[in-house]
Every structure is written in structure tokens, then in C-alpha cells.
Amino acid sequence: MNVSTLRIKRALLLPAAALAVIVGTSGCSLMFDGPDDPDPTSSQSQEKSDQNEPDQGDSTDADESDDQSDQDESDQAESDPDESTGTDESDDQSGSPSDTEGSDPYDSDDSDTGQSDGSGQTSHGESGDPVHKSYVSYLREHGVSQVSSVSRTDPGSPAVTVNSPAGWHHANSRGPAGSYLTIVNDSPSVGSFKPNAIGYMFKVPSSTDYTSVTAASRSQLESLPGFDRKSTSYKSVDGHRAYGIAGLYNYDKVGSIGIVTRTVMIEKSDATYIFVLQTTFAAEQKESVTSAIRTLQRTIQVV
């Protein structure tokens, strides 16, 4: 067994931050390709909100307004990838739609991945390294006290599928504990780090508001060492309200890590489900994974 095989097998047992990869700060931008849907939690954008982004009433969040202004400054002359309804549930299927437009990765990975309890813990997975609070912890800080992890086999829960891009494949059995799905490119040609996407799903009360969900996602990433937000997005996903955040953070033993996260809020009559997809890749893989990342983001489908 070679070193690369050992590394990916070990990595796939770790939380997503451990799967996150080195991303150089020069010549590498993780952006949401605007123009974007307006921030539905901002009072200024309530009347301009897309029909897929229902009115949030009086809910406001100053930080979310800042997100939108930051996006205006950093995401100029980009085009937002549209959405697709492609599905892929097998562990070995692959295939991506034609993603010829755009040249930058689109979403933000986050370390919202679970430890053994599936809580979405952010950790570098090594003794002595900083361990950050889980996404569940941030949901609770923002008023969502009842949170449980959801598996693909839980009865009554929505099913979420994501296409595996060309060269990637589903590897759910090798994903971190508590993960909902895992997609990886473990081809020898990609190098020692294997680009990957990991999804998690959580169940929360139906009364949970969108502002709490987005605030939890933002707070978790902003807690990472030296986190530098590059972009945010409020683009809906398959008709469901969603939030994306992309950026870089520092990890002494690795360097600058790129993070791309998409959080989707699936509202049902009896409960709300939160699906989070994180994608990670190495700086030298940027050009080769751009299309794959866009495929992953576009093909999130709620069944």
C-alpha cells in the first residue's frame, strides 16, 4: 500500500477540516460567482428577494448585510452558476453536466463535518491541534436547542443527492462518522491530497428561522484561525433557501486552507432539515477541480 493510499484512507476517517487542503493565497480566489440573490435577512433587500427566497419578515442581521457588501467588493465580474437537478445515488456513478462558463470554484467548503457523534465538529484531527466548536454548537448558540444528526436511512427524512463529477465517485462507506455522503477523486493523477466533498444533514424544529441557520454557518467558519472570507451567496438550491460561504483559514501544519460550504434549509411541516456540503482541494488542483466543484454545487437535489 503506497503513501497516497494510506493518506486518503486516513483522511477519510477525519472531519472535513482535516480533509481541507492547502490553498495558496496568491492567484487563488474562492468566490461565489455573482450577481447573486439578495440577502433575504437584510431589510434593504426584502422587496428585491427572489421568488425562491421567501420573505423573512422582520428578521435582520447586521453581519449578513456586511456579507453582501463584502461580496460586492470581492466578487466583481463573476457569473453565478445555475442549478441542476441531476441525481446520483450510487457509490460509483460519475458524470457532470457541461460546466464551461466561469473559471473559479464556486462554493465554500466548511468544517461542518461530524466527529463520532455526527455533530459537525471542526477539527484538524491531530493531538494538540485546535478543535473548534461544532455546527450543532453554533446552532444552539443562535437559539436552536433541538438538533439531531440524520442518516440516509432515517425514515421520513428528505433524501439529498449530489452528482459525482467526472473522475470522482461516491465513497459513503469511507466518509467520516456521522456524514451523510462522501464524494472523492482518489485518482493517482491528482496528487497526494484527494479532492473531496462531504455532506451532513441535521434535523431541527420547524420553527427554526433562516437567520439562525445562516448565522451558525457563518459563525463556525469565522471561528477558524485567520479565517478570511472571500464571498457569500444566498442563491436558492433546488427551490430551497440556502446560504454559502467561501474563504481561507490558517493551519500551522498545513498552511492556508480553502473552505467552500453550501448550507440548504429543507422546510417540512413537522421539522426542518439542514443539509451542509463542504468541498476541499489543494491549491495546485484549483484549475482541475473548478468544473467539478461547480458540478457538485449545481446538482444538489432534494427528493
TrEMBL record:
Asked if the keyword RNA-binding belongs to this entry, the reply reads: no
Location of region: Disordered = 31-132, 144-172
Residue spans of biased composition, Polar residues class: 145-164
The reply to whether Mitochondrion figures as a keyword in the UniProt entry is: no
The positions making up the signal sequence are: 1-20
One Pfam family here: Lpp-LpqN
Low complexity biased stretches:
113-123
Biased-composition ranges, Acidic residues, are: 52-92, 101-112
Family matches, as PROSITE patterns: PROKAR_LIPOPROTEIN
Q: Which keywords, in A-to-Z order, does the entry hold?
A: Signal
* Name the record gives this protein: Lipoprotein LpqN
